[in-house]
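@channel sequence for tomorrow's demo:
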Amino acid sequence: MSWVALLVLVAAAWLAFKAVGLFVRLLLWVVVLGLAYWLLAPHLGLSVPW
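structure tokens (generated this afternoon):
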């Protein structure tokens, strides 16, 4: 395997890990915001989906 291919492979793996980290971070924010709405909506008189 050439050095260029090895560098491309390392860069692709690094970008894949960055993308997974971004996805997990966004998913955690969705969960936090959903939980906050679920807890605060009844007290603020907002509609709840159930």
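heads up for whoever presents: The mean pLDDT is 92.
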